[in-house]
Specification:
Elements lengths: L1 H30 L9 E3 L6 E5 L5 E5 L2 H28 L3 H4 L4 H9 L2 H11 L2 H20 L4 H6 L8 H14 L3 H11 L5 H7 L27 H8 L5 E9 L10 E9 L7 E7 L3 E7 L8 E4 L2 E7 L5 E5 L8 E4 L2 E4 L1 E8 L5 E8 L7 H4 L6 E5 L7 H8 L5 H8 L7 E7 L4 E6 L13 E2 L18 E3 L5 E4 L21 H12 L5 H8 L5 H14 L7 H11 L10 H18 L5 H8 L2 H12 L18 H20 L13 E4 L7 H7 L3 E5 L10 E2 L7 E2 L1 E3 L2 E5 L7 E3 L17 H5 L4 E2 L4 H7 L2 E7 L1
Parallel strand pairs: 1-29, 3-6, 10-18, 21-24
Antiparallel strand pairs: 2-3, 2-29, 4-5, 4-20, 5-25, 5-26, 6-7, 7-8, 8-9, 9-16, 10-15, 11-12, 13-14, 16-17, 17-19, 21-22, 23-25, 26-27, 27-28
Helix pairs in contact: 2-6, 2-8, 4-11, 5-8, 13-14, 17-22, 18-19, 19-22
């Protein structure tokens, strides 16, 4: 018995030691990379001290004596907080996800390689000014110092690899990825091509936005311009969404002049609507070279310049123009698919072999083929019949890195416009406000000059349909100090219909911009609190327009059940605000979706019906296009003998809405609150692995949420993942030109990308409750707000 006890005691000791060892390992895994923000660090090659103040949210404010030292320090400080995210985004642009995530990413890697992002980045770097090259080299030096001398974040250890040295070209790659992510034609235009196999051209036309029904333009007076006048200066891509590294979606921005602001000086607001994931796409940062540069705002991890923010003279922010920036071409190939027919001659395809290394240790060989326009894309679209190539704006000559470098330093409207003139591949409406009292809005975009509608699949055997260049910057729309006292944009139609150049069909519906302008007009004078209220506005102009239409249709039915009657009363009494507590919001959102779906479901195969659910914009525009006359070939159910009306569709959809809510939330209509089905979980790419999520605490949520994709404060969801918010305001900024220290900011995540850090997702609760934190700018306020101080010292 004594022997048995000794054995059991020995086993117990081993188990305890193993548990202690595991606990120590896990603790080290989680915390080893967390930096001490008060610890001074020596950096080899630094010429003089750089001071880094951090506020209570860990936001860094860097003070340097030279630009070289500043950008060296930026690279080091950013890597302290976001190294794994930086490496992940770099791998996306290089097509090297398979090396760390496995062979499931091979097609995604191949697609990204087909875009030749780094090839263009190398050309841009070769043509960049010495100042920009020096800044990128200094930044890379700082990142590499971190890599060489510090413990890596837990994601590297979990995935079993170390980051490679950072190079200046990697910074420019991130601009190329942004350009791809906001491309408008890749999904929608190919889907319309697929639709032609099942429905008529007349029905397809009703899915395409009719610009006459989009009555609100960003630049209302910029039609019929005189070009000579003087002017003042899914598929593989679905994997990127699943990883949480999809970037742009939509945005809002606006500015008011002194005549409409309580301070008498311009106020400006911006919130770019992006994928909501962790680590968030933005890194808040303040950069100072005393006497030379003072700029603050948000930076994309992996490059050093402020993308949207303000310096001591001007502020700026961005919204997506929604340019139709990609075209498909149906090519004619020879028998062995090595040549393509072009203007009567057979041209050689550029054929490249790509070897893709995988985490499993394999090397997968794939082939890419290119015409003079761009890559053949059949393997990414699973298109087996028509050889397809694309031409994409991201491969055109542009220099966005120059733009942001110069924006950080611009002093006035003229310098601002010069800076944004090279913002071509990442097409944006850039709002402007300055300390001299001026406001403006500039469309900075690459608009292809092309034949045809812009949305057709073009014949590839003729040069007739090749792009003939881009619209000159001088002919792009802008506003400067308009009499109304404000400027605004929200991804809506850019210009009136008589503007001579085609921009796009793929604009957002006017719901958000109309509501923004309603609020801008409601008061004679607006202040910071008014802008906060606008950012947190959940009243929907879509609901305001459609709810009375639905009610009129539902009045044609009298045989409602008791619960259906109660739900109908909720809808009739609604104020069109999608608050967390609203039962009517739940009823409307489901009814709106089902009405759109029930119009098209009977006419499409299961495959294309699932696809159209991912093209929500087409369904929204179908609704807009049929509303006036409520007469469309889509309305009648082709599978029944009865000829259905729009009223029939709405009644059917309402019955299905009530049935769904009863199933999900029960028979008590008072429990059908929007927050009970509309939720938000902020997720890390590795959070899909339950054990990692539990051990590293990668994800947060779910949180019950207000709003929707059609409210100014958006918590958007896809029709393929119902009511789970996955897009929204990726930041909120309010800039006060009268006193920059009054400015306010918030992001959905936090400064740190290290899950065990106290600054990982520490702003999330404030964000979802529409709160802000201070955005200090003067050195006095920065020092007063400082919770941490680090000195980076020459070695």
């Amino acid at each position: 018995m004594k022997t048995v006890k000794r054995i059991l005691l020995g086993l117990l000791i081993l188990v305890v030691l193993a548990l202690i060892g595991a606990a120590v390992f896990l603790q080290n895994l989680k915390t080893a990379a967390i930096p001490d923000y008060n610890k001074n660090v020596e950096l080899k090659g630094l010429s003089s001290e750089v001071t880094v103040f951090r506020d209570e949210f860990g936001v860094p404010h860097l003070y340097a004596k030279t630009e070289a030292d500043l950008y060296y320090a930026i690279g080091f400080v950013m890597a302290q907080d976001r190294m794994w995210q930086m490496d992940l985004l770099r791998r996306v642009t290089q097509g090297r996800l398979s090396e760390i995530l496995g062979k499931d990413q091979v097609n995604t890697d191949l697609m990204m390689r087909a875009l030749r992002i780094q090839e263009k980045s190398e050309k841009i770097l070769a043509k960049s000014s010495p100042e920009i090259v020096a800044a990128l080299e200094a930044y890379a030096k700082g990142v590499n110092h971190y890599i060489e001398n510090n413990a890596m974040p837990p994601e590297f250890k979990v995935l079993g690899y170390k980051p490679e040295p950072w190079k200046p070209v990697h910074c420019i790659n991130l601009i190329g990825y942004m350009s791809w992510d906001l491309s408008m034609g890749w999904g929608t235009e190919y889907f319309l091509h697929q639709l032609r196999a099942e429905v008529s051209d007349e029905k397809i036309a009703e899915l395409i936005p009719n610009m006459r029904n989009h009555k609100t333009a960003i630049y209302p007076e910029f039609g019929n311009i005189n070009p000579d006048a003087e002017t003042t200066l899914l598929s593989a891509s679905q994997n990127l969404k699943d990883l949480g590294i999809e970037i742009f979606n939509g945005s809002n921005n606006w500015a008011v002049s002194g005549k409409k602001s309580k301070s008498g000086k311009p106020l400006m607001a911006n919130d770019m609507h992006l994928g909501l994931f962790s680590p968030g796409i933005w890194y808040q940062m303040h950069q100072v070279v005393e006497g030379k540069l003072n700029v603050t705002g948000v930076v994309v991890p992996g490059q050093p310049f402020v993308i949207a923010g303000h310096n001591q003279n001007i502020g700026w922010g961005m919204t997506n123009v929604m340019v139709d920036d990609l075209d498909f071409y149906a090519e004619k190939l020879n028998e062995d698919s090595t040549k393509y027919l072009f203007d009567g001659e057979w041209k050689d395809l550029d054929i490249r072999k790509e070897n893709i290394a995988t985490k499993e240790g394999e090397s997968v060989e794939k082939v890419l083929k290119f015409t003079h326009r761009g890559p053949m894309v059949n393997q990414f679209k699973n298109e087996k019949e028509t050889p397809l190539s694309i031409r994409w704006l991201g491969n055109e000559l542009s220099n966005e890195i120059r733009t942001v470098y110069l924006l950080n330093r611009a002093k006035n409207w003229t310098e601002f416009r010069d800076a944004v003139s090279t913002f071509i591949s990442v097409s944006q409406n850039v709002v402007y406000a300055d300390t001299d009292g001026n406001i403006g809005l500039q469309c900075s975009a690459g608009l292809p000059i092309r034949e045809g509608s812009g949305i057709q699949v073009y014949p590839g055997d003729s040069s007739k349909y090749d792009w003939k260049g881009l619209v000159p910057f001088e002919e792009l729309p802008y506003e400067f100090n308009p009499e109304r006292g404000y400027v605004s944009s929200a991804n809506n139609k850019t210009v009136p219909d008589d503007y001579p150049h085609y921009i796009s069909h793929w604009f957002a519906t006017p719901s958000r911009i109309n509501r923004i302008r309603e609020m801008l007009e409601e008061k004679d004078k607006l202040g910071i609190d008014d802008f906060k209220a606008m950012h947190s506005d959940f009243k929907s102009n879509t609901a305001t327009q459609l709810t009375p239409v639905f009610i009129t249709s539902l009045l044609n039915e009298t045989g409602w059940s008791a619960i259906e009657k109660e739900a109908f009363e909720k809808l009739k009494a609604w104020d069109y605000r999608l608050t967390r507590e609203s039962e009517a919001a739940s009823i409307f959102e489901i009814l709106y979706r089902k009405t759109m779906e029930n119009m098209v479901k009977d006419d499409l195969s299961d495959k294309l019906f699932k696809r159209i659910l991912g093209e929500k914009m087409l369904l929204e525009n179908l609704m807009i296009n049929v509303l006036e006359e409520q007469n469309s070939g889509w309305i009648d159910n082709s599978k029944t003998e009865k000829i259905e009306t729009f009223d029939d569709i709405v009644i059917q959809s309402f019955k299905e809405t009530v049935a769904d809510l009863r199933t999900d939330l029960g028979d008590d209509v008072d429990q059908w609150k929007w927050e009970n089905i509309h939720t938000f979980t902020i997720s890390h790419p590795l959070g899909v692995v339950p054990v990692l999520n539990k051990v590293l605490k990668l994800n947060r949520g779910p949180f019950g949420m207000p709003g929707s994709y059609h409210t100014v404060c958006p918590y958007s969801y896809s029709f393929t993942n119902l009511y789970k918010a996955n897009h929204g305001a990726s930041h909120r900024h309010i800039f006060d030109t009268q006193n920059w220290d009054n400015s306010q900011t918030i992001i959905p995540t936090g400064t740190s990308g290290i899950p065990a850090s106290k600054f990982y997702l520490d702003q999330t609760e404030m964000y979802i409750n529409n709160k802000y934190h201070a955005d200090p700018f003067s050195k006095t306020e920065v020092e007063n707000a400082a919770a941490f101080r680090m000195s980076l010292l020459p070695d």
